[in-house]
Amino acid sequence: MQRHAGLILKSDTPKGRGVFTTAPITAGTVIETCPVLLISEKEVQAHTKHTELNHYTYNWPVLSAYNHHGSCQAIVFGLGSMFNHSRRKQNVTWERDLSQKTITYRALRRIEIGEELCISYGDRLTFIDAEELAGRESDDESENNPINNIQLGL
Ligand SMILES: C[S@@+](CC[C@H](N)C(=O)[O-])C[C@H]1O[C@@H](n2cnc3c(N)ncnc32)[C@H](O)[C@@H]1O
After folding, report:
1. Would 109 be classed as within a structural domain?
2. Angle at 35 between CA 18 and CA 16, to 5 degrees
3. Is residue 143 in some structural domain?
4. Which among 42, 68, 104, 118 would be 20 to 30 A from 12, CA to CA?
């Protein structure tokens, strides 16, 4: 198990808690290797789907004894469950180790002091993306700002 030094958890961001760095991280650095706990699809349907945990689990592929591919859900321990989503500023990638039951997170690029560490959750989000919302609001503001609405005398 491994965790990069200088990571902090901030609790008051527009996305809730989030992971930030107090030191630069070079591209490719392992940020953390996290153990996971697997939950069967039956348990998901009966229990975790109805709880807050549903917003924290990862899909986890399983190969049954009959070679049928299926999936279950994984609860990730450590900072793995604290990485927020960013579509535009994603700077962390992750990889499952199915046999070790771990996920390793790595820097996609150099990450500067003070930056939030974000992964991509994909396209099907279960919440309103705070970044997209902030982007829309600033677009609206600039449309309503007279300085940005000067008509060109064409
Ligand atoms: C795996 S948790 C990440 C940690 C979480 N922020 C917390 O405080 O526990 C996933 C949840 O974080 C929030 N979240 C993550 N990315 C977000 C984003 N881009 N915009 C708004 N909320 C986000 C959503 O509530 C989502 O269900």
Report:
1. yes
2. 15
3. no
4. 104
Q: Atom of ligand 1 at shortest distance to CA of 83? A: 3
Average pLDDT over residues 119-144: 84
Which 8-state DSSP code applies to residue 115? P
Q: How many folded domains does the chain comprise?
A: 1
Distance (angstroms) between ligand 1 centre and the Cα of 147 equals 35
CATH number at residue 103: 2.170.270.10
CA 88 vs CA 45, 53, 54, 99: distances in Å:
32, 25, 24, 32
Identify residue 68 by its one-letter amino acid code: H
List pLDDT tens digits, range 67-114.
567 889 999 999 999 999 999 999 999 999 999 999 999 999 999 999
In a domain? residue 14: yes
- Is 44 a pocket residue for ligand 1 (Cβ < 6 Å)? no
73 touches ligand 1 (CB under 6 Å)? no
> pLDDT tens-digit profile of 26-70?
999 999 999 999 999 999 999 999 999 999 999 999 876 665 678
Instruction: Quote the tokens at residue 153.
Output: 């005398």
Cβ(79) to ligand 1 under 6 A? no
Q: Which domain holds residue 84?
A: 2-35+74-138
